[in-house]
Amino acid sequence: xxxxxxxxxxxxxxxxxxxxxxxxxxxxxxxxxxxxxxxxxxxxxxxxxxxxxxxxxxxxxxxxxxxxxxxxxxxxxxxxxxxxxxxxxxxxxxxxxxxxxxxxxxxxxxxxxxxxxxxxxxxxxxxxxxxxxxxxxxxxxxxxxxxxxx
Length: 150
Description:
alpha+beta, SH3 type barrels, six-stranded mixed sheet, about 40% helix
């Protein structure tokens, strides 16, 4: 019971709970999907962060590339997730950014071909109905509008 009370006392709500993460290496995920890895040096009541020795990490599969950013300020409203980063990257391989870009372009092509395959193999009538609906709004609707004017 005493341990629970001590844990409740040490918990700080809101941005104040980030104080425990000061001077530690953290991983920050932003609203635009970027992953930042750096040392948390400062924060304020709005969860604005100052990260030192920051890297932007690009991940594709089990490979990653880091781009050095240096000292970085993160606005609190763009923050989605913040967590302590571990030092163990044994499951992932560091590569050059050009290789990550190649992997992403291949992945996009594969995703597009998978989408087209599923579209035509499993539900071809849905695609046909979408075409008819689109053509209706492109060709028929303007004719209807001109009939109203006459």
